[in-house]
Specification:
The structure is a homotetramer of 457-residue chains. The first copy, chain A, has 457 residues and is mostly helical. Chain A is built from 18 helices and 6 strands. Chain A has 3 domains: 89 residues, Fumarase C, Chain B, domain 1 (Orthogonal Bundle), CATH 1.10.275.10; 249 residues, Fumarase/aspartase (Central domain) (Fumarase C, Chain A, domain 2), CATH 1.20.200; 94 residues, Orthogonal Bundle (Ribonucleotide Reductase Protein R1, domain 1), CATH 1.10.40.30. Chains in contact: A-B, A-C, A-D, B-C, B-D, C-D.
Chain lengths: 457, 457, 457, 457
Amino acid sequence: MAKKLWGGRFDKKTDPLVEEFTSSISYDKKLACFDIKGSIAHAKMLGKCKIITKKESAILVKGLESIGKKIGKVKLNSKAEDIHTAIANLLRSKVGKVADKLHTARSRNDQVVLDVKMYTKDAIDNLICLITSLQKAIIKFANKNSKIIIPAYTHLQVAQCVLLSHHLLAYVEMLARDKERLSDTKKRTDFMPLGSCALSGTGLHIDREYVKNNLGFSRLTENSIDAVSDRDFILELLSNLVIISIHLSRMAEDLILWATKEFNFIDIDFSFCTGSSIMPHKKNPDVLELIRASVGKVGGDFSSVLILMKGLPLTYNRDLQLDKPPLFNSTETINNILQVFTELFKNIKINKTVIAEKVRDESLFSVDIVEYLIEKGSSYRQAHDITGKMVKDTLDKGRKISDLTLKELKKYSGKFEKSVKSILNAWASVSRKTSSGGTGPRGVKRQIAKWSKRLNA
Amino acid sequence: MAKKLWGGRFDKKTDPLVEEFTSSISYDKKLACFDIKGSIAHAKMLGKCKIITKKESAILVKGLESIGKKIGKVKLNSKAEDIHTAIANLLRSKVGKVADKLHTARSRNDQVVLDVKMYTKDAIDNLICLITSLQKAIIKFANKNSKIIIPAYTHLQVAQCVLLSHHLLAYVEMLARDKERLSDTKKRTDFMPLGSCALSGTGLHIDREYVKNNLGFSRLTENSIDAVSDRDFILELLSNLVIISIHLSRMAEDLILWATKEFNFIDIDFSFCTGSSIMPHKKNPDVLELIRASVGKVGGDFSSVLILMKGLPLTYNRDLQLDKPPLFNSTETINNILQVFTELFKNIKINKTVIAEKVRDESLFSVDIVEYLIEKGSSYRQAHDITGKMVKDTLDKGRKISDLTLKELKKYSGKFEKSVKSILNAWASVSRKTSSGGTGPRGVKRQIAKWSKRLNA
Amino acid sequence: MAKKLWGGRFDKKTDPLVEEFTSSISYDKKLACFDIKGSIAHAKMLGKCKIITKKESAILVKGLESIGKKIGKVKLNSKAEDIHTAIANLLRSKVGKVADKLHTARSRNDQVVLDVKMYTKDAIDNLICLITSLQKAIIKFANKNSKIIIPAYTHLQVAQCVLLSHHLLAYVEMLARDKERLSDTKKRTDFMPLGSCALSGTGLHIDREYVKNNLGFSRLTENSIDAVSDRDFILELLSNLVIISIHLSRMAEDLILWATKEFNFIDIDFSFCTGSSIMPHKKNPDVLELIRASVGKVGGDFSSVLILMKGLPLTYNRDLQLDKPPLFNSTETINNILQVFTELFKNIKINKTVIAEKVRDESLFSVDIVEYLIEKGSSYRQAHDITGKMVKDTLDKGRKISDLTLKELKKYSGKFEKSVKSILNAWASVSRKTSSGGTGPRGVKRQIAKWSKRLNA
Amino acid sequence: MAKKLWGGRFDKKTDPLVEEFTSSISYDKKLACFDIKGSIAHAKMLGKCKIITKKESAILVKGLESIGKKIGKVKLNSKAEDIHTAIANLLRSKVGKVADKLHTARSRNDQVVLDVKMYTKDAIDNLICLITSLQKAIIKFANKNSKIIIPAYTHLQVAQCVLLSHHLLAYVEMLARDKERLSDTKKRTDFMPLGSCALSGTGLHIDREYVKNNLGFSRLTENSIDAVSDRDFILELLSNLVIISIHLSRMAEDLILWATKEFNFIDIDFSFCTGSSIMPHKKNPDVLELIRASVGKVGGDFSSVLILMKGLPLTYNRDLQLDKPPLFNSTETINNILQVFTELFKNIKINKTVIAEKVRDESLFSVDIVEYLIEKGSSYRQAHDITGKMVKDTLDKGRKISDLTLKELKKYSGKFEKSVKSILNAWASVSRKTSSGGTGPRGVKRQIAKWSKRLNA
């Protein structure tokens, strides 16, 4: 059995069932390196402030550093209550009784918040990096296919022509917001809690500024009760991850649709697909389906922390222990998806011929006709009605608008000229859209250039 | 690398990133024993139906049985795509090429549903057993303290006297509904899916009835597409677990409050408490807090499956793979809580003297006074108003109702007689409540007897 | 201002902000008719038990009945705290002071549970009815198109041929489980709580059996604390509705896909579509999208009640007031969807020619070829590999399997005979699937017959 | 029936069931004023850019302004499809056919995003204002009670003494983060989407900068597809509201506990409490319970939008319509709570005598004793063990530490001096905590001053 950090008043051993039930080491071991870094800073501060001797401080620091080097290599005592206890015990076995001084002016309440904040800041840096990689992969793919025009959909019904690259840039925008959101969350996480102790601060003359600077935090928490009770940063990171997961699920859905035999816009390389145990012809985009489903995982994790936080009285309650599995799981899930999605973009082939055929569908140009009529003086509603009727008639009769004679066109509106036929093709259609943010090739090119520059900065 | 169950059309190796990302063996290994049982039944059926030879069938069965014996002991290939593949590969290495015949007239689509249904049925049996144990522990505790009267609360304000045992029986009722709900879920899970193959059934002359009987299912699924797409039983079990977790969280909350210094109704044994790393006087009910927080875990898991199921087209989609971690986690969480809660009841001591003092609070008898007046002919509202005024006056003047003279009482209502004083005590108060389902000692005794009999049946 | 049901001890008026904040009449007015029915039964019982006089009882009953007739026609006092108070006040203005006797041996705690249980039972009956209508509409549609064969999908990739009717019957199965689940929930709701009063029962000699029978409940609640604290039936109904909403969202998704230009299996009538304010050619399946999105509404409502219940100490807490908006909203949402979906099926046209073309895709028959080879003696894996290779080669070379010569076929496997060509068509493919629950036309016909009979029983 | 904004191609009337099912006017009428402002800016721009004539523009602007003045006063056509249609129809009836020109270069897709963004920005400004008011009320209350010392709790067990004001400042910190989070969300919402039209932009020569400036937006959306599909800002605001609701629920829980007879720290004024229909002595903190329960409402709303967004393909889908009820409901819920909570703080009385008695509990000083020993040279663990033993012994023997003789103290540790007794009181205990962010009176005073200044800036 592992020695506990408490017990003075206890004259009875903890029931083994309770020990197992309350143990967190199976997951909080992920905090090991942060716990050690935090303890080193704390030990240095204790020495500097003469709360322990310089020598004691040095012994603690050395002991912790040596444990730090082995983390990931040695097996942690799975019987320890938590990672903090496991490391405290390791330290004691290494440096002897002086290890007992490390917990001076510190409680697990502030220690665990420190560790999780360090984890969170680190996770955010990492996520931002991975999102940037995905953005780059998308931009690269968009750039390579910059002339491809696809039908865009609303309600999954063909709507208008857009550049494939314009469609993809929509995701780059979403991901950019995701990064900004992560940065804002990091900013609010970046407050150093150590020195709050159990909940009220301490009477020992500690130096919180020193610890803050040593650990690279920007600011100090300013209320010890808030410091030990606050899990906002976890909820906030999880809400960021929820939004990211939604973006990724939408991108996955688009690609799943595009990879169907029916849409057939893209081919995903065999190395990124899986097959069927029973149907030898199958080539399935499982990776994308698992990405889509991951919204469930991340959304569930957010709910989980939300529920456990509800109505908890101040200050610390043990409920907070269960904030960690959702945090770790969702962070890792999104991490993995970002990596696999980045690679996936290198394994997609555009079916140019198929797509070129699709954008011959003239209903894609109905808005162009409407705008043509408006420019000739129609009101929006007249133009909409005229075009609607024309679409209906041609569909009913199985004809194409471009095949109508000028005389036939004039029946719908005297405003039609021969020139209308020149707008009935995909390239003309996207080229018309010169409004800022629109799918016009020049604007899109500028956007690609802007992003390329920004992402490689 | 582990051999896959598919690949015929594939001329390229799966990307290692994809293999890792899509692998499920780290969690679906929990299905190993069900997978083997299912395969044995399938192999026997194939032999019986002469789809494979009797001899081949016997070899497969023997091979699977021998693998079954070692499950839990040997390490599974963590590189295998999933548990089904891992076992198929083990079988091949054991019995050679005949192993390839096992997958005849079966797909992973129906195989995985079979396994998860078997897991679910087994989990439900186990949960019902554990709930019964907890009910028994509560009944035992209630019976031991059958004379204790506590103040009951509404809005966390003292309301009326009740027997502690009556309060506890409320939880026994909740848990009884939980078991009934689980049974109903099991009933709807108990449909054997094998033979649905990928989604459409098979042309081979299989015998589904045989497999059903062999595996102890009650009925066959009647639509192959539904059979491979349906995850209702998972959502249903998770919703059952959510409701159970709410019950457990409420019971935990009651005990957390009762264990505070302020309420002080109970003492939890040191062996079921934990201490503080910084405050040597602390004795904390961490177990109860973790139980309370587990609603988050289970609620998150339900959300997770709900989200991933939303809007999935028929038939099978890989998204469904992610139904398993929530199912397993929540099942195990509730399993553990039920066990620890059962033990906890053996470690609670009632602080009789403290409680006896609490129920001297005369505001607990206000409804008794109201009913006294009604019996004497007051309308409910008169009685309510009179008693309200009396409570107010005595509180304002720091007096007790039982100390009022008859004359003073008569000022509030001429209906008061000396007899009213005899109802102003806890035992009289609970004894009055003779309505069925009420807290009257005779009724409660009958309830305890009923439950004791039912739970030990 | 409306008179309150309490106030005796209160010497100060409630703050108007508080009155507004705590008021529930804007939503619990939906309980009006149940509240009145419950009060009538209660008034009758009070008279029968001589707790009030027969005459008083008769006056109350008459007054309540007359209010009941006007419910829905007269405007309720929106200043009343809740529907119970509004009706109590109406009654007082109608029958005078005797109205004050109605609340004898009753609390709002048990009254509100009664009302919500009556609402729930009624809602369930209604839902079951509407689900049956939808099932009938599906069966009718399936029957009308019983010869249509469509490609079924796994991973949204074409998989195998199935009868359209078989595909639709999968939804009939889901909806049947939904009804069974609702019935089970009703069974657990069907416990009459009145007589539990605030939480402990009463000393007045009431007759709960009488009230139970009068109101058509099957059983009595057996623990007064549980009776006023229990909201399981709400959570259970909401979890049922979540599962139903998932089924409906999946059916909607299938139809959304089928209605795309790319799949083009169906045409939805203009009367069930909407257009675009800007794109005159659009015809959008908005109804289906709103159905799909409703999982969010219902899922959110379930979460909402789950969260508010978490960790509530016994007995009644005001938090429980907020259980009603989610219950009402989700019930009405699913009600509406069921009705609109039933009508929708009358407005779908199958594009037979398009579909007939789609099922010429020979990869749909790969499993048939595999089974052909197995019947000729191949092991499943050999058959899978051979067929995989054949599919790959023909795809690569742009050929069809049915165009291969026998000699070419033999290169893949000596087991191929000329007869293989006869299985390469959709009708042969579905006809082969004779296993029970499979897509074989005879089995499907039996299923349709079974359901027709059952639904019209 | 209201005229629709579309219909050109439609030769059939929409089914009334569909009209009702798809209508959103019952809730999106809340967008009326924003819709009008947006339309005015759009009309001005169309005139300025000569897409319509100056005169037409002026007529539209005047018509819209006159409608704007009556919003909230006239009843909107409840048969209109949505608020945009209702206003368009009103405009047409007011200014005639020129109204048809307003929809030029605009789609409902970008119009609705504009409206909801304007609503969101406005809502955020309002929320920040209300949070500031609540913070001020807390600071005022804290300041008024700045000398009160309460026991702080961990695990709901008495832990250490803190200033009441320090405890309350924890909530001020949380609320400050809430405001910052809202500001960040506003920053990301502040992108003007108009000009994105249906999804691709327009060929008409519009001036988006003009509209942006006119409506007070900071920036333009830069991708038209993203602009019409993005609902991040709704999810982000809802996640902010979830976190706020958790803070409010925790504060409510603290006050609910403090208002129990058992804790008895505070009295809430009768005007902010409610009574019981059956128990005349009751005075219940219903307001706080409803606040606590509102996490459910807000959490459910977040889930709702999360679920509906999952896996939606680009670009616009009708599912997005259902983002509005959760947005509006949660915003209003939190709005109301903030107001009622601010008033509540004016209606709380501190029970000074009761609290003063509570903080005589010497176990509250155990950490002070530990630190005393550390300052005398003990290691943290020795000090913890010694104090633990002392607490245990005195509890067991029913003695107080302050009554121990020096000789008795010395038995625990030779380091004890007479001086230890001077630290065994609440004021000494909090005064010791001089570390930054701790509960020391000087630091807390500084914090109050800082907040007073900041909030009144």
